[in-house]
Design brief:
339 residues, Rossmann fold, five-stranded mixed β-sheet, 15% strand, elongated, ATP_PFK, metal ion binding, Phosphofructokinase
Length: 339
């Protein structure tokens, strides 16, 4: 088994977990990155001959020694940090996403009520800027009790690089034992830089990344927070585009939705709507000729058409901008204008 995806620990956990009514996960439990395993046994390769052909009674063994695995997440029966003295910090970075405040609230309540953390939790304001400049607020269950009813991030957010050495200096000075980073690719890259700097200094500080992706493009997760809200909010513009398109002869309604590299929002919003005729996704290449050909066929049987496209669709038929945003992502061309 490839151990590259084994979670690194800050030390030997010797404290019994205070959690109750949970199923604890053992450290030797792993999840295959690719759950499809080819079995080379002759018994498995022999084709079934109708219903009379029986499967072997014993399971066919297969070797996972060279497979890439992820260590299974979940509560452990023993923990490292003492709830009486541990200091926790939380930061949110990058773009806003529905559900951010729910996540902040849940983390604070879990630490206080489930693990019995005594010290107020530090909330760093405006992303990694807050860590670099020691801009903090105190988070308690009383403070966060209603923030799930608010949009945006209660802590604020920002984009852009911050010096990991300065951030770790401040994390150590503030006595942070556990840092929870809530964000996407850029945020977790920054978290990894903090982890590497902490490791260089042999500090016992845990860095925990909570992935934030409204696109739902995260494997082995039922759904990412904010995805369902994005699908719901997309229904109004799709409905409006449909009404506009059907009100004129050969009308076309065009809606562009989020999705740089994945089209889950565009696809699921279109399925939920039931009024969309064409969906353009980053994962599926197309040409303008193919799009026009379909539109011609569509207008032979209908007088309108609704198109939903993800923002990252069709980038291969557009010249690259050659620009980067503050998070280091390529600035995309506007596929909506091209269409």
């Amino acid at each position: 088994m490839d151990n590259s995806c084994t979670i690194k620990t800050v030390g030997i956990p010797q404290i019994k977990s205070p959690l109750d009514a949970v199923q604890f996960i053992e450290d030797n439990e792993y999840v295959l990155l690719n759950p499809v395993v080819k079995i080379s046994s002759k018994e498995a390769e022999r084709p079934f001959q109708g219903i009379s052909q029986q499967r072997p009674e014993a399971p066919i063994p297969f070797d996972t020694s060279n497979k890439i695995c992820f260590q299974k997440a979940g509560p452990r029966s023993r923990i490292f940090f003492d709830a009486e003295t541990v200091q926790v910090g939380i930061v949110t970075c990058g773009g806003l996403c529905p559900g951010l405040n729910n996540v902040i609230r849940a983390i604070v309540n879990c630490f206080y009520y489930r693990y019995g953390v005594k010290k107020p939790i530090y909330g760093f304001r405006y992303g990694y800027y807050g860590i670099a400049n020691k801009d903090i607020i105190s988070l308690t269950p009383e403070v966060v009790k209603d923030i799930h009813n608010l949009g945006g991030s209660y802590l604020g957010s920002s984009r852009g690089h911050q010096d990991s050495t300065v951030m770790v200096d401040n994390i150590i000075e503030l006595g942070i034992d556990i840092l929870v980073t809530i964000g996407g690719d850029g945020t977790q890259k920054g978290a990894h830089q903090i982890f590497e700097e902490v490791s260089k200094r042999n500090e016992q500080i845990s860095v925990i990344g909570v992935p934030k992706t409204v696109d739902n493009d995260l494997a082995y997760v039922d759904r990412t927070f904010g995805f369902e809200t994005a699908i719901e909010q997309a229904q109004a513009p799709i409905l409006a585009a449909h009404q506009e398109a059907r009100s004129v002869f050969n009308g076309i309604g065009l809606v562009k939705l989020m999705g740089r590299d994945s089209g889950f929002i565009a696809l699921n919003a279109s399925i939920s709507s039931g009024d969309v005729n064409i969906v353009l996704l980053p994962e599926a290449k197309f040409t303008m000729e193919e799009l026009i050909e379909y539109l011609i066929l569509r207008f032979k049987t209908s007088e309108h058409c609704v198109i939903v496209c993800a923002e990252g669709a069709g980038q291969d038929i557009l010249p690259p901008t050659g620009k980067k945003d503050k998070s280091g992502n390529n600035v995309l061309q506007d596929i909506g204008l091209k269409i």
